[in-house]
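In full, the data:

***
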Amino acid sequence: MQGARGWQKVLEDPTKAKNIYQIIDSASWCEGYHKIYAEFFNEPLLIKEDINTKYFRKQIIFNTQERYNAYIQYDTLLSGDTYSTPAVDKNMSQYCDPNTTKYEE
């Protein structure tokens, strides 16, 4: 749901790319922590399969031309800048949003 809420913001207004990219990236960082890194901090790996896969993004989120165009606009607006990723440590789990409710704003 965390990733879906982030991508919903892209669909609503892709021109806010620089304001919302970290919301989307946080879902990926959370996934990476619980799929790869948690075991290095004596925590269980909670994710076994990719969540934010091409299938999820292409077949479910950006499954119409209008939605795909919103993604392209978002992606283009982020192009050319430099973005950092968090350090791989136990604090990486802070990017996880345990809220499982649907996006409503």
User: Anything to note?
Assistant: The chain has a mean pLDDT of 88.
